[in-house]
Amino acid sequence: MTEPSWVSAASVYDTLFISIERGARYKWLETLVTIEGSLPASRFDVKEAQGTDGASIRYKGLSAARPTLSWQLWTLEHEIEWLDFLKAALPRPGKTAPVVITAIHPELDMFGLTKFWLEEPLVPKFPIKGICEVGLKLLQWSAKPKEIAPAKKPLTLADYAASLGGASAVPNLRDPTLSEITFGEKPPPGAQPTPPSAVKIKP
Fold this sequence. Notes:
- This protein is α+β, with helices and mostly antiparallel strands.
- It has a domain of 113 residues: Elongation Factor Tu (Ef-tu), domain 3 (Beta Barrel).
- The protein is built from three helices and nine strands; from the N terminus they run E-E-E-E-E-E-H-E-H-E-E-H.
- Strand 1 and strand 2 form a beta hairpin.
């Protein structure tokens, strides 16, 4: 992923595109965009026992990014785009989920962030005469959380035998009549292996 340079292509960082899923598209050109908030971060469950060094640490996956996006309106076109966007995207009462939006800006794209839930709009501010600063609190969109696969337990003798034919295939390792470890087979009673020294070799 190659992002435009904020030195040679600074104007790209003063541009914001937002589209609503299955809806309209909006753009703000020649504006001042500010992005704050949190990026995706690793989550750990750290358990420290009293009187011991170190800790038990378990990885719990990534947390969702929660960026706050704000930009300035100072032209009539800016204001019209903002008011039209609010009509389509404002959260509504009830159990209907808020809209999913795609926000295109280099500072988000460099972290692979483009799709978000709209949590809430910010109250407009007027830092100087003729400038209105608006913003959105966003939550990184995810279709379904990815489960972390549990660690596999070591394969036991019983597991291996079961794959061959069930519990009956497990040998009794304490049986003194077994000359070697076999599955489901025992030498006949009294049978002993013949040592090499007992074999007569003809000249």
